[in-house]
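Running co-folding for adenosine monophosphate.
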Amino acid sequence: MLNIVLMGPPGAGKGTHALWIAKDYGLPHISTGDMFREAMASGSELGNQIKAIVNSGGLVSDELTCALVKERLSRIDCENGYLLDGFPRTIAQAEALKTFGKEINREVNTVMNISCPDEQLIERIAGRRVCPKCGASYNVTFMPPKKKEGICDECGTPIVQRKDDNAESFKVRLANYYKSTAPLMEFYKGEGLLADFDGSIGAADLKKALVAFLEAHK
Ligand code: AMP
């Protein structure tokens, strides 16, 4: 069974690879970023509460984020595995996941970390476009839609630029990554769960490496 945490800096390729991993291995894709964006788009109380934080590149509180993830993982569709994308992002979240994971029988058993040098991350984020409907990621330079310019290959929806994919928010997100999220690599190394992947090699080669790993670990 694959109870996966997918981690890496913003722009490393988590979203791109999460989509096919979830599909090919039949895992629910749980992206806290998507959950927050959906809440913001729906204008719910939660959405309004977190809008300013998310758009500026800040981190939503551990308490709120952990409560959302615990509820989501508790659902029956996570019984035979899941793919967490963008969670945990702090040591406190990882500790909480460890505790409630045991409690609800959803312990993490695989952590895949995608690393990538900063210069490449900046380039990728600047050109990134996403599908607001299905979450597919594109890049105007490196990975444009194949069928029609500006239109999602998967579901036909016009692709957009995320509000937080600007230079200023990116700076904050990268700083938060190094300060709060990068220490998780040591945490999961200590748990004997960490597998490292080079995200600078291009999406097709990275996919090959991830497939080889997943086939050996499923
Ligand atoms: P992402 O789509 O993973 O890049 O997430 C977009 C934004 O959602 C982040 O920049 C944060 O503002 C917020 N967010 C997503 N996941 C978390 C998390 N685990 N903890 C706190 N904030 C998060």
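Result summary
The longest strand covers residues 110-115.
The chain is about 50% helix and 15% strand.
Job closed.
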